[in-house]
Amino acid sequence: MLQSPWRPCAQPGDTLTLPPPQWLSLLLLLLLPGPLPVAGMEDAAFPHLGESSQPPPRACPPRCSCPRVDTVDCDGLDLRVFPDNITRAAQHLSLQNNQLQELPYNELSRLSGLRTLNLHNNLISSEGLGSLHCPPTLPGLPDEAFESLTQLQHIYVAHNKLSNAGLPPDAFRGSEAIATLSLSNNRLSYLPPSLPPSLERLHLQNNLISKVPRGALSRQTQLRELYLQHNQLTDSGLDATTFSKLHSLEYLDLSHNQLTTVPAGLPRTLAILHLGRNRIQQVEAARLHGARGLRYLLLQHNQLGSSGLPAGALRPLRGLHTLHLYGNGLDRVPPALPRRLRALVLPHNHVAALGARDLAATPGLTELNLAYNRLASARVHHRAFRRLRALRSLDLAGNQLTRLPMGLPTGLRTLQLQRNQLRMLEPEPLAGLDQLRELSLAHNRLRVGDIGPGTWHELQALQMLDLSHNELSFVPPDLPEALEELHLEGNRIGHVGPEAFLSTPRLRALFLRANRLHMTSITAEAFLGLPNLRVVDTAGNPEQVLIRLPPTTPRGPRAGGP
Asked: Exposed, middle or buried: residue 88 (CB in 10 Å: 0-12, 13-18, 19+)?
């Protein structure tokens, strides 16, 4: 019988009792939610078993594969009994995706060199953990479980049913090298005590945590990433000292909790703070003074109203790069934003107007998303975008605009205006946009007669134009020469003449789905001079439309659509 430093409680044929190193390998793999993890990841593949020039070992369990002398793969064989004839040289044993219910002592005790044992997705109950050590210890981790494993660096115990009762205070005593600890998707109600001081990544998401006890994170000065999302944290469950000692913390995820304010005591090293899906009603500058190095602040889906971000609230964050405010109740662009801000993500709010100086404080913006607000053309000042010379992406989709805004930045690459109420296009708003590559005007009310002459003239770099779901009766003339992708689906087009695409020789993809086309609606000459054309979609029309691509293409006549 195996000699164990623990009090023996197993006999041959009983459930196994191992000394700490072997016991830990078994426990960790038994609890894993999937294949064997690797450093820095929560889930990764079991070591690849098919890339070896070594011949398989002579002894291999029936139906299993043994591609190397140290590897036995019994994955997904519907096994109900632990396999025998496993080589003593085995270091990697995969038994995942079977129906094992027990682990025989005699078989496992002789595998003294085992380094990885994967028992994911079997029928071993959580009570089975208690049988790995002597009663009356509760199912979970025994006291000082990792004390002798001084080289252990990564522990993954995710997707189980561990409660705080299964994590005694001394479970991590002596663990001086553990960098990654994953306890996500369990049943913890508060932060475990005596966590290893060497931790760099701590995963506690998807638990029932409502409180971080005072001092629980006082020794984790090397912690860089802390994941606490999808818990039950409230303001009273945190205090000013909760995060203050985390002098290396860079990433903190507190999303999907019940916080009503930004936590106090945030460390200066913090670069990413995720507070989405809480109940925050106002952001106070005092709570952000310590986090002056913050680069990304995510506040989407909170309860920020008209006074949720008062002037100066974000002033301490001088280096802020991205501010994410999706799905709040803001009725205007927050005032006095950090000057170095590069991305302002503000869709699905109540912004109804853009004044001349609303965006003046952020001249370095490269991305501005104001989609699905309440902007009307009459309330967008013609100088609202004047200072945004660095802007490359502007999203105004889903508003109430009836015409294109004036004074658009000339450096724009992408302009989204779909799902508005546009009834006309004129050359003046698009003048100077000679770097624009993508323009979406889908789901508006445009007719060909509403597009003024010369509208497309200065869009010399435009490659994608979306005019789908408007009221066009034929292909608009004089489209940009650089155009490669043209969306015209969902209009009223009933005829495509021979000159429809004379101005777009680089066209690669054309979408005419769901129009009013019939079998003879497209003239044979329509696609002459389009050597790059590869996709023509004419499905969903009253009749199947025969498409004849130019002779230079690899194929001849074919029917449009899928």
From this structure: exposed
The answer to whether 379 touches 355, Cβ cutoff 8 Å, is no
Residue pair 198/218 in contact (Cβ under 8 Å)? The answer is no
How far apart CA 387 and CA 354 sit, in angstroms, is 13
Residues with Cβ within 8 Å of 103's Cβ and at least 6 positions away in sequence, in order, are 15, 16, 26, 82, 119, 124, 128
Contact 231, 211 (CB under 8 A): no
d(C-alpha 338, C-alpha 354), whole Å: 18
Question: How far is 452 from 122, CA to CA, in rounded Å?
Answer: 68
C-alpha of 162 from chain center = 26
E strands present in 228-381: 251-253, 272-274, 296-298, 322-324, 343-345, 367-369
DSSP category for residue 78? -
Q: pLDDT tens digits for 217-276?
A: 999 999 999 999 999 999 999 999 999 999 999 999 999 999 999 999 999 999 999 999
| Residue 223, burial from CB neighbour count under 10 angstroms (0-12, 13-18, 19+) | buried
Phi, psi of 561 (to 5 degrees): 95, 180
**Is a pLDDT exceeding 60 seen at residue 27?**
no
Alpha carbons 220 and 194: distance in angstroms, whole number: 10
What is the C-alpha to C-alpha distance for residues 396 and 369, in angstroms, rounded to an integer?
7
Count of beta carbons in the 10 Å neighbourhood of residue 273: 23
Instruction: Give the residue ranges of DSSP H helices in 101-233.
Output: 105-109, 127-130
Give the distance from CA 556 to its chain's centroid.
43
Peptide bond into 136 cis (omega under 30): yes
Tell me the pTM.
0.78
HSE-up (13 A, CA, CB side) for residue 220: 29
**What totals of helices (H) and strands (E) does the chain contain, helices first?**
4, 23
Q: Which of helix, strand or coil describes residue 122?
A: coil
Query: Using H for helix, E for strand and C for coil, what is the string for 424-458?
Result: CECHHHHCCCCCCCEEECCCCCCCHHHECCCCCCC
Q: Sort 400 into a burial class: Cβ within 10 Å, 0-12 / 13-18 / 19+.
A: middle
Q: Which pLDDT value is given to residue 15?
A: 33
